[in-house]
Amino acid sequence: MRRWDGLESIPSGWERSVVAVGVFDGVHCGHRAIVGTAAELGRELGSSVVAVTFEPHPQAVLRGTGPSVLTPVDRRVELLGRSGADAVVVLPFTEELSALSPEEFARHVLVEHLHAAAVVVGEDFRFGHRAAGTVAALRGLGAEHGFTAHGVPLVSDDGGPVTSTRVRALLAEGDVAGAAELLGRPHRTEGHVVHGAARGRELLGFPTANLDLAPGTAVPGDGVYAGWMTRLGAAPEEDRWPAAISVGTNPTFDGAERTVEAYALDRDDLELYGVPVAVEFTVHIRGQERFDSVDELVHAMNRDVDRCRKVLVGG
Q1: Rounded to an integer, what distance in angstroms lies between the CA atom of residue 198 and that of residue 208?
Q2: Inter-axis angle of helices 176-183 and 164-172, nearest 10
Q3: Do strands 223-231 and 116-122 pair parallel, antiparallel, or not at all (unpaired)?
Q4: Measured at the alpha carbon of residue 206, what is the angle toward residues 235 and 268, in degrees to the nearest 5?
Q5: Burial of 15: CB neighbours in 10 Å, binned 0-12, 13-18, 19+
Q6: Are 26 and 67 in contact (CB under 8 A)?
Q7: Superfamily of segment(s) 2-155
Q8: Domain-wise residue ranges, the chain
Q9: Fold designation for 187-313
Q10: Is it the case that residue 61 has pLDDT exceeding 80?
Q11: pTM of the model
Q12: Given a cut of 90, is residue 226 above it in pLDDT?
């Protein structure tokens, strides 16, 4: 799969393609329906499929602050490729881009650079200055410029349409299982392992990997979770471990900074400082608690680890 950062990276002789457009943060079930529809059209037309995503999130530019990020851009590109895209364009979302009219966006991005034969979006897609462009407007522009436009119905469940906003809300509540249903996989955070207070190894008997997360990363609500920790860049079958994951401020020690720490079950031999890792959240074990003593905390941690072990490996 190809990745292009900005329109200028697209080869000048790029063939006509089927283009899927969206922010795609999370690459959840609804996003995959859009890319999947584009892939079906690509097979029918004999054309490559290009997914267009935006970085940063448009709200961060238009409103000054954006929502928490479900998938960092590198992960998003990877997931879009797995969903059926042959190439992904990471389009910098700037004030200049936001000022383009729907007509200018269609001509400049879809026609001149991507040579669109078909464009696929969600049925609620809006584009152009002040979000003036609709799917109906896109169809009209397609008729003018020689591409077809397709609005894919939103994927829904009993809770309503599947959206990134719903995923974020579920994560904030600690409902990682519910978030995983919408995402089609466990929610994952990524970061390098950094030095913490060293209490896990020296005081508590559970050496944890402290993740240095990018600002704005979507993190589940405070509590303890069962999940998996993977060393990025390594063979998954070799460097993927069941883990107990703590999210919160360490209130027993009067902590103030919110952290994500992962303990690879029954492993005290891992040297991960400076290493990039991913942590996947699969089951909520309990909420964050403050304990009156270190002994009470250690007792609770042993219970947590036992529950995580049963959930993840059945032991």
Answers
A1: 8
A2: 160
A3: unpaired
A4: 45
A5: exposed
A6: no
A7: HUPs (3.40.50.620)
A8: 2-155, 187-313
A9: Elongation Factor Tu (Ef-tu); domain 3 (2.40.30)
A10: yes
A11: 0.93
A12: yes
